[in-house]
Design goal:
heterotetramer; A alpha+beta; B alpha/beta; C alpha/beta; D alpha/beta; B: alpha/beta; Rossmann fold; 12 helices; 8 strands; about 40% helix; C: alpha/beta; Pyruvate-ferredoxin Oxidoreductase, domain 3; seven-stranded mixed sheet; about 35% helix; globular
Chain lengths: ~90, ~300, ~180, ~400
């Protein structure tokens, strides 16, 4: 059904749009595959769900929306994630 | 299926790029619970952090991909009750869910929530307690811990002040409504949280209530990478224990292997940094006595 | 249009009696309205109710100030309430009272006809409760002729049950009507 | 077949609502509206209605529940009075700005202080700018009929606004009179099912309601909202005619004029006092005064054109209000009517009058005094200060 929404009621595309939160990042988490035990802790706790789980049960970090909070690095029991300062603002 | 497989399998219901603070564990909470709840859900986001960060977006462009709306600060449960009554009236099953802060739940919205709980409106109400009006700049609320700095319970230059009153024991208030299901959650205990959301979804004879203790990084002064660690400390110190109440029966869900002092939890938060030893000791005593009461309730079965 | 004021005491069915009159008149294809005087109604407090009856639609939706008939449901009100206030000329006074109570008070000279019956006594005998309203409606029907006897009886039975048929009839039959040509009792 | 019954105003409201088959009803009791809630719950208990009921804990929740249900697609009904309406204010405003076709009876009662229980439309008039349609009625038949009409009006695709049907506490709510109750089939024929096409919370088609919206867009919504009221302005008159055609009863639509074709001055009233005003007009005319009567039914949308048409060209008009516009010192509808007159360039003497506050009776004496005051203005050619009718009668 087509809704007759234009300006009748506040619904529709007038909301907030996706924010490029990747630009907020001052430090980026880098995962050391050699140290990673595929435990999934980073996957559980990433607040933006930037950690992706793959079919082989491995995990990688998608930086598109990662805000660089450092939770994954802090929670990792195997020290496999390190927070590295972002170099300049090349992607800004 | 383990928790990792389960969560990976389920669709992300909140769009990326919402403007929650860096490291916000409420963002983690809403993303997690919405994955469990799935698309057959109508979501209410009253004024508060999750409204402010853009969860009430539109059409898979931003915010929630489920139908979502802003109720008023003080009528969340009643509006949801009305929506649920409509779907019951036409015989359609839908999860009707609130994701509301402590202000909209324990303070301004308490009357409506209490009414809905008493009437047995079949809604799922999730309260994220970040101990204050964080979206408007960290003002105190009824659930702010005693002694905490907030913008309306300031600390003097001499280092005295903070909130003078005790924290309202909100999960206990809801449990005493004798609703079919009440549980406390914590973002450091994701599996426990997912289990509880599933149990709450299955409730068919009344209101289900989930209480999530969410330390607020910005408002409390916690380092962003300690977001989960500090939340875990609240549980491990028995300050915010994990328990559930199913049809009046209390059950403890987690017993710390080694209980840590409340001081350890408090030390994560700048909002407690002015507290002297006596004040911290008082918090410890209160935590101990509440923990003791909870244990007794759980022993009663 | 006939305007009626009922004086009673909370718990006697004063308001209901007024409504019954409207039900009767509407049943007969005519018009009426009935409205209680709105106070904090409680058992034992004085209650006033206003009724209008007419062959055509009734426009005023307010209190009655110049009644053509006053119905008093309890003899104590003869002393405690101003039952003659605003009375129209040639009006009818229907009262639950023994003759002695009437003799003790000054009847307004605007009253042209008095109808009295000891309704409390009949109510206690028939209903075992001091609810005189259906008996007084019988007295009213006889004294005024403004309500169809059969029709009113049916409405009463419908609202209050079969026991009240007898109450209504006793009121109708036992009421004593005095014409006051010269304002004398 | 319609049925002739004796009903008080609250029963007429409950009956009217029941005939409209609302899906969800939520209401909280408050004097003098309480019996509406009791009657509806009894209907439900007796299986006479299929509506889902919610026994809410406050008026805030009553309005919130019907708002939620309406957002999900239900036809909804509620009722309140005075302090209850005040408690509802937050979701009340929102129901109109979300364009939800809720129908709510307001059993007009004064606002405290002082503590009062009795009638007066101050409650609803105070929220006349909260975006709802407000219609005020004169008798119990009109209550029942207007509630049926209100759902048609509210759900019209060009209107999509909530409607208040307002009637005086006690004078109508507790007064019993003859009411013709239409049969269900004819109401069904007049009032089709409600199918929301502008807003609906439904997982089948997700939408977000009330995303944070800037002033530029909010302006567009307000503009469309006022257009809804403009549409209602036409539709209220049209529906009155359609209703009359089907049910044989007409109320004049936005306003009703009585003895006004040849009048040289106009008395304006609203609500239950109008009946006494009709008697007064007849009496004054018998005494040689060519007074006309204008009964205001719609306050929102305000029927400016019809008011002007009924008053313009006369020598004076007066308004008896059962409300106070603080700061103006007159009644509330007086200001509205005077604004409408001025807008049309008509500046005839105007007499503001206030009577019947707090449920005081507006009697034939008051109305005759009101007519006298209007004719004083006719003679002097000057507008008056506010006449407080009950006080004047006391002095006399």
């Amino acid at each position: 059904m087509k809704y007759i929404s234009d300006y009748i009621v506040p619904i529709g595309p007038e909301g907030l749009y996706i924010i490029d939160t990747g630009k907020w990042r001052t430090r980026r988490p880098e995962m050391d595959i050699m140290k990673c035990k595929k435990c999934g802790t980073c996957f559980l706790y990433c607040p933006v769900h930037a950690v992706k789980r793959h079919e082989d049960k491995s995990y990688t970090i998608d930086y598109t929306y990662c805000k660089g909070c450092g939770i994954c690095a802090n929670e990792c029991r195997f020290d496999s994630i390190e927070m590295i300062p972002e170099e300049g603002d090349s992607d800004a | 299926m383990n928790i990792y497989e389960k969560l990976a399998m389920q669709e992300e219901m909140i769009s990326p790029g919402i403007s929650a603070c860096v490291g916000c564990n409420v963002e983690l909470t809403i993303r997690t619970v919405m994955r469990v709840l799935g698309p057959n859900t109508i979501l209410a986001i009253p004024p508060g952090c999750m409204g402010g960060v853009g969860v009430v977006g539109w059409d898979k462009k931003s915010g929630s991909k489920t139908p979502v709306f802003f109720p008023l600060l003080d009528n969340v449960a009643s509006m949801l009750a009305g929506i649920k009554l409509h779907y019951e009236h036409i015989g359609q099953k839908v999860n009707v869910v609130a994701f509301a802060g402590d202000g909209a739940s324990a303070d301004a919205g308490l009357q409506c929530l209490s009414g809905a709980a008493e009437r047995g409106d079949k809604i799922l109400y999730i309260c994220y307690d970040n101990e204050g009006y964080m979206n408007t700049g960290y003002q105190r609320s009824g659930t702010t811990t005693k002694g905490a700095w907030t913008s309306t319970t300031p600390v003097s230059r001499q280092g005295c002040g903070g909130k003078k009153q005790d924290k309202k024991d909100f999960p206990m208030i809801m449990a005493m409504h004798d609703i079919p299901y009440m549980a406390t959650c914590n973002p450091a205990f994701i599996k426990d949280m997912v289990d509880k959301v599933e149990k709450a979804m299955a409730v068919e004879d009344g209101l289900a209530f989930l209480y999530v203790y969410n330390p607020c990084l910005t408002g409390w002064g916690i380092q962003s990478d300690k977001s989960i660690e500090s939340a875990r400390a609240a549980v491990d110190s028995n300050f915010a224990p994990l328990y559930e109440v199913i049809n009046g029966t209390f059950k403890l869900n987690y017993q710390p292997k080694e209980t840590i002092p409340v001081k350890n939890f408090v030390s994560y938060c700048k909002k407690f940094s002015h507290l002297n030893d006596l004040e911290i000791e008082n918090l410890q005593q209160q935590t101990d006595s509440k923990w003791h009461r909870l244990q007794m309730l759980c022993e009663m079965g | 249009m006939k305007e009626i004021r009922l004086h009673g005491i909370g718990g006697m069915g004063t308001v209901k009696a007024g409504e019954i009159l409207v039900h009767e008149t509407v049943k007969e294809g005519k018009y009426g309205n009935s409205m209680p005087f709105f106070g904090f109604e409680r058992q034992g407090a004085p209650v006033t109710s206003f009724v209008r009856l007419d062959d055509k639609p009734i426009r005023p939706k307010n209190k009655v100030y110049q009644p053509d008939c006053v119905i008093v449901l309890d003899p104590s009100l003869l002393v405690s309430a101003n039952v003659f206030e605003g009375l129209n000329d040639n009006s009818i006074f229907v009262v639950n009272s023994r003759i002695e109570n009437l003799e003790a008070i000054k009847i307004s000279d605007r009253v042209a006809r008095i109808a009295y019956v000891d309704a409390t006594d009949i109510a206690m005998e028939l209903l075992n409760r001091a609810i005189p309203n259906t008996i007084m409606l019988g007295a009213f029907a006889r004294a005024t002729g403004w309500a169809e006897r059969k029709s009113l009886e049916e409405v009463i039975v419908k609202f209050f049950g079969e026991k009240n048929r007898e109450a209504f009839r006793r009121g109708y039959d036992e009421v004593k009507v005095i014409e006051l040509g010269e304002g004398q009792l | 077949m319609p049925e002739i019954k004796v009903q008080n105003g609250n029963m007429a409201a409950a009956t009217g609502a029941a005939l409209c088959r609302p899906d969800v009803i939520a209401a909280y009791p408050i004097t003098p509206q309480t019996p509406v809630v009791e009657y509806l719950t009894q209907f439900k208990a007796d299986g006479e209605i299929e509506s889902t009921m919610s026994e809410v804990e406050s008026e805030l929740s009553a309005m919130s529940v019907v708002t939620g249900a309406s957002l999900a697609g239900s036809r909804t009904f509620t009722a309140t009075a005075s302090q209850g309406l005040a408690l509802m204010y937050e979701p009340y405003f929102r129901a109109s700005t979300l364009r939800l076709p809720i129908v709510m009876a307001v059993v007009n009662r004064e606002m405290i202080s002082p503590q009062t229980l009795w009638g007066g439309p101050q409650d609803a008039l105070c929220v006349r700018d909260a975006g709802w349609i407000q219609i005020y009625v004169e008798d119990n038949q009109e209550i029942l009929d207007t509630i049926i009409l209100a759902f048609r009006l509210a759900e019209d695709k060009g209107v999509l606004l909530p409607v208040n049907v307002c009637y005086d506490g006690f004078y109508l709510s507790h007064m019993s009179e003859r009411v013709e109750v239409p049969d269900q089939a004819s109401v069904d024929a007049f009032l089709p099912h409600y199918v929301p096409e502008h807003i609906k919370l439904d997982p089948v088609r997700p939408m977000s309601v009330d995303p944070l919206t800037n002033g530029y867009l909010l302006t567009e919504y307000r503009l469309r909202h006022t257009q809804g009221h403009q549409r209602a302005l036409k539709l209220i008159d049209e529906l009155d005619a359609e209703f009359a055609n089907q049910f044989g009863r007409s109320y004049g639509g936005l306003v009703e004029e009585y003895c006004n074709t040849d009048s040289d001055a106009v008395l304006v009233t609203m609500g239950s006092m109008t009946g006494v005003a009709r008697e007064a007009v007849d009496l004054a005319r018998a005494r040689g005064r060519k007074i006309g009567l204008l009964k205001l039914r719609a306050v929102r949308p305000f029927p400016g054109a019809r008011v002007v048409k009924a008053i313009a060209g006369r020598k004076a008009f007066g308004v008896v209000d059962r409300s106070v516009s603080f700061g103006w010192g007159t009644g509330i509808t007086f200001r509205e009517i005077r604004s409408a007159m001025y807008g049309e360039g008509s500046n005839i003497p105007a007499v503001p009058m206030i009577g019947g506050l707090g449920g005081e009776d507006v009697t034939i004496e008051h109305m005759m005094l009101a007519i006298d005051c209007i004719y004083q203005a006719v003679e002097s050619g000057l507008s008056n200060e506010t006449v407080w009718l009950n006080k004047e009668i006391d002095i006399m």
